[in-house]
Specification:
2 copies of one chain form a homodimer. By secondary structure, chain A is α/β, with parallel strands linked by helices. The radius of gyration of chain A is 21 Å and the shape is globular. The N terminus of chain A is likely disordered. Chains A, B: This is Enoyl-[acyl-carrier-protein] reductase, mitochondrial. Chains A, B: Belongs to the zinc-containing alcohol dehydrogenase family. Quinone oxidoreductase subfamily. Chains A, B: Keywords: Fatty acid biosynthesis, Fatty acid metabolism, Lipid biosynthesis, Lipid metabolism, Mitochondrion, NADP, Oxidoreductase, Transit peptide.
């Protein structure tokens, strides 16, 4: 979720942030000294002490591993992606910001090494993912509170587990929670090649929904179109093609979408609104264009369009951990049936983080950078 | 509802318009000849044959009165206001547009003179108002289909009856249908001195809701503030005052609004969004500034603000005539209890329509022009 804006400084959100962090950051980086060491109680982590350009502010540091308390879980991280929201959080442009210094990364999968005496939900060997944003997944090992973690089945691919907790959850909830869609209905989205976008295409196809997928024009556009169609996209069009009169032909064979998913803002979102069926909803979950959503008064009044936003962190706050676990298990079913695969990934060792960070902020990079530990 | 935009030319809305008009316009102006006459079968009406500036395109014409068929009602119009939406419709900027030539006016009250043999809902002497927009109320008499009319009790003031069918209905539905408000909750609105705005103030006060009312600065602003406070407004602030840090003081004593009602668009609506409580809804029902609604991506995602639109014509299409009658009776209860009064009105004889049209398009005119027949 590529989001700009200064809202993160709002008082109410600072409180949200504090609450989320107090739960998941209990043993945050003991940053008193960062010297390299062979001490097994010391582990490596990608730490930032200031908000700014990730290439400049993120450093590989040694952190001290905390002792495992009764309700704690010692986790060896296996893989953790670099998502747009991780970058935004480091830049300081996100709805919740950790206390600095902080370990980067909000998503990833780890394996349980040891558990405290009163831990019942997971056992050594289990795979776990963060229960909430802000955990700091870009590190080799950590001791977390049990309630900061959610167990995931081990019979899914590692890359799927590492990329399960944010993007597919966001995609699934947006498809389910705003419009009552039935098989045959259509959905339009922009940023269709993003992690969320690819999950939307696959989950929608599995649910019998037809997708119109907008992407930015680029070299090798046909290759991208083919790859999204292979995932189940019915139509893939560039932003420019979306504005052409020929778009009408698409809607001769497919119903006008009742749901639009917007990760861009600006002109791109104006175009999504224009394509929506009367009464339809546009859900904004990102703002890659760093421009606001602009809606004509006429579309709101006479076409009864609805503009909403979605933020998985808020959804989790409004739902119980069991509901989040249920969501994860639902997505695992899609994965086991071959209906949901991880986005194309480039695995990069944690130590080569600079290369991975650089690649993840380049435009038109179609593969997700995944740090491996 | 002061609305701009080209949506009225959209195909789906043209259909809405056609349906609305085929129901309410059955005996539309028989415009074959417009010569003045003393013939009792001929009546006077304000007719426009082209879209454009009301002062230029509206003319007083003689129309022929149709015979009263079995399901028809002969109505003598008593009073009909000039609303912003009437002006927009004449200008051609509205979500439904009548076939031209058309009689102006969407609201008003008339008295039944005679009824057809199978009419059961109203009888001679009853007061009636239009069931839908597009009836053409600016005329001395007309024969309408029974289903184009709704009876209203005669124990409310004439001006209240003449201004009941659009603005108070819009105000009440917007207060009831978007957020579940409880006594003590607050509502913020702009264009607070409009017909809808005054109805919002009064109905909200009757429901125990606290209102923050934004108005444009003007000469004699204190007089306007006093008059809105007399109606029940808790706070009245100018657009400029709304942007000042002192606004924070208001929210020490009043909860942040969960509902914002926007009839302006542009900067004014941006400011309403900024004042909304997290999770709150802004309902747009007009666009006086002729500028779109602009929402930052952050407000949508991290503050979970919802942007909606309201159009009474659509509400009526989605509800039964009995539900509209129930709404009218609910509003009559407010009127009888002294909780809802008509806006300050200037009565102008139909023949002096040019003066009334001119006054109704002037800025900062605080009294509504009502044509009397």
């Amino acid at each position: 979720m590529w989001v700009y804006g200064a809202l993160c400084r709002a008082r109410s959100l600072a409180r949200v942030q504090q609450e989320l962090f107090s739960a998941s950051w209990r043993r945050g980086p003991a940053c008193s000294s960062y010297s390299a060491s062979d001490d097994p109680s010391r582990v490596q982590a990608l730490v930032y002490g200031l908000h700014g350009d990730p290439a400049k502010v993120v450093e590989l540091k040694d952190l001290e591993l905390a002792a495992v308390g009764g309700s704690d879980v010692h986790v060896k991280m296996l893989a953790a992606p670099i998502n747009p929201s991780d970058i935004n959080m480091i830049q300081g442009n996100y709805g919740l910001l950790p206390k600095l210094p902080a370990v980067g990364g909000n998503e990833g999968v780890g394996q349980v090494v040891a558990v405290g005496s009163i831990v019942t939900g997971v056992k050594p060997g289990d795979w776990v993912i963060p229960a909430n944003a802000g955990l700091g997944t870009w590190r080799t090992e950590a001791v977390f509170s049990e309630d900061a973690l959610i167990g995931v089945p081990r019979d899914i691919p590692l890359q799927s587990a590492a990329t399960l907790g944010v993007n597919p959850c966001t995609a699934y909830r947006m498809l389910m929670d705003f419009e009552q869609l039935r098989p045959g209905d259509s959905v339009i989205q922009n940023a269709s090649n993003s992690g969320v976008g690819q999950a939307v295409i696959q989950i929608a196809a599995a649910l019998g929904l037809r997708t119109i997928n907008v992407v930015r024009d680029r070299p090798d556009i046909q290759k991208l179109k083919d790859s999204l169609k292979n995932l189940g996209a019915e139509h893939v069009v560039t932003e420019e093609e979306l504005r052409k009169p020929e778009m009408k032909n698409i809607f001769k064979a497919i119903p006008q979408p009742r749901l639009a998913l917007n990760c861009v803002g600006g002109k791109s979102s104006t175009e999504l609104l224009r394509q929506l069926a009367p009464g339809g909803t546009m859900v904004t979950y990102g703002g890659m264009a760093k421009q606001p959503v602009i809606a004509s008064v006429s579309l709101l009044i006479f076409k009864d369009l609805k503009l909403r936003g979605f933020w998985l962190s808020q959804w989790k706050k409004d739902h119980s951990p069991d509901q989040f676990k249920e969501l994860i298990l639902t997505l695992c079913d899609f994965i086991r049936r071959g209906q949901l695969t991880a986005p194309a990934c480039s695995e990069v060792p944690l130590q080569d983080y600079q290369r991975a960070l650089e690649a993840s902020t380049k435009p038109f990079v179609s593969s997700k950078q995944i740090l491996t530990m």
